[in-house]
Automatic annotation (TrEMBL):
UniProt source species: Urochloa decumbens
GO CC term (a single one): peroxisome
Top-level lineage group: Eukaryota
Record InterPro entries: ClpP/crotonase-like_dom_sf, Ech1-like, Enoyl-CoA_hydra/iso, Enoyl-CoA_hydra_C
Family, similarity comment: Belongs to the enoyl-CoA hydratase/isomerase family.
Location(s) in or outside the cell: Peroxisome
Molecular function via GO: isomerase activity
Pathway linked to the protein: Lipid metabolism; fatty acid beta-oxidation
UniProt name for this protein: Uncharacterized protein
An example Gene Ontology biological process: fatty acid metabolic process
Family annotation (CDD domains): crotonase-like
Length: 297
């Protein structure tokens, strides 16, 4: 037993692989094509329309952290089982801090602080999607409601099938959306579109989501969505991992700072990254008119 633990601690990739094989309660994580560096993280509670339970909030960051550490993972597809992508936060389930009741004599300040901590933990669970160094591509079909939109907003690329619908329902539930949608959506679709969605709680179609920039591609069916997103992920996975991860990191950094600060950040980043063997290989391959063979992580 001790020997196995030592091997796991000295080989992070093997440890991450072993942890993934343990499986999940609310997710299914797989590598559909062993020859490609693409992993699929599938919301896997179809009977509950993939509503986000406390277990889901615990498992999403665990899966993203493991894939972040796994060299064979070069791109991640985030999809869902069943007819719908996600029904939002599961209400009324056990352990849900949003619907927890407190005893009459409990300290209201302590209760408020407990709820604040719970919200911050749920926020952090979805930010883990954004924090994963590997690009995450959302494949949305059916209904994407409330917290499901927050999940999608944390992804790097968003695609959907023609039957997909999106709605921020929190305002109709007398709640201020608090899992990142109000912070990320204005940067994705613009302030006006984000305010329209958040204040009205109206449902939008796949084509309207495309028009406002919430998704970049719409596929005619779930089957075409799965194939199309797999192709996008495979193409990304074949590029230099250092360039892909660096591009994601710089995009996120530049989103939250001024243009001048973003330029300074990428200059510092590339001062190191432009020395990579992948750049030399890309130039050689271009001159030799062949496909480049990039280094492993």
């Amino acid at each position: 037993m001790a020997g196995g633990g030592d091997r796991g601690s000295s080989d992070p990739a093997a440890a991450a692989e072993a942890e993934l094989r343990r499986g999940f309660e609310t997710l299914a994580v797989a590598r559909p094509d062993p020859s490609a560096g693409v992993y699929e993280v599938r919301l896997n509670r179809p009977a509950q329309r993939n509503a986000l339970s406390p277990a889901a909030f615990a498992e999403i960051p665990r899966a993203m952290s493991l894939l972040d550490r796994l060299p064979s993972a070069r791109a991640v597809v985030l999809s869902a089982a069943g007819p719908h992508f996600c029904a939002g936060i599961e209400l009324g389930g056990p352990g849900n801090p949003l619907t927890a009741t407190y005893s009459k004599g409990s300290d209201p300040v302590a209760a408020a602080e407990g709820l604040r901590r719970a919200i911050l933990e749920m926020q952090d669970a979805l930010t883990a999607i954004e924090r994963c160094r590997k690009p995450v591509i959302a494949a949305v079909h059916g209904a994407c409601v409330g917290g499901g939109v927050d999940v999608v907003a944390a992804c790097d690329i968003r695609c959907c099938s023609r039957d997909a619908t999106f709605v921020l329902k929190e305002v109709d539930m007398a709640i201020v959306a608090d899992l990142g949608g109000l912070q990320r959506l204005p940067r994705i679709v613009g302030y006006g579109n984000a305010a329209d969605l958040a204040l009205t709680g109206r449902k939008i179609t796949a084509m309207e989501a495309k028009e406002m920039g919430l998704v970049s591609r719409v596929f005619d069916s779930k089957k075409e969505l799965d194939a199309g997103v797999a192709k996008i992920a495979k193409e990304i996975a074949e590029k230099s991992a250092w360039a892909v991860m660096g591009t994601k990191a710089v995009l996120l950094r530049s989103r939250d700072v001024t243009v001048e600060q973003g330029l300074e950040h990428v200059a510092t980043w590339n001062a190191a990254m432009l020395r990579s063997n992948d750049l030399k290989e890309a130039i050689r391959a271009f001159l030799e008119k062949r496909k480049p063979v990039f280094s492993k992580l």
